[in-house]
Amino acid sequence: METTRTSKTIDEYIVQFPEDVQRKLQRVRQAIHEEAPLAVEKISYQMPTFYFRGSLIHFAAFQHHIGLYPLPETLETFAKDLAPYKQGKGSVQFPLDQELPLELIRRIVRFRLAQALKKKEK
Known about the structure:
By secondary structure, the chain is α+β, with helices and mostly antiparallel strands. It is built from five helices and five strands. Helix 2 crosses helix 5. It starts with 9 loop residues before the first helix and ends with a helix.
């Protein structure tokens, strides 16, 4: 179920998927927007990306999960909360057959936003 074409916007990206997956992607997008309203949407690495003083967070849909890409140190910070989910070096997978942990996603975005703000201050 991965994308078969290159998208120029997040809307173009989301519309490629079945309706149930579209709803989940929109929920992730909305949660990120609400926590980081000044972040700019773009497509980077063929994934929806929010950019604020650098890449803030990426997300993407796959056949069995939605991947969230918040950087490795973020995953270390939230290791206990993310323990139930499959992870990669800088990613976490939320299975499509489970409810999205939206509050956890919001906390991750707040953490990434704080990192971006600190980085700019230095």
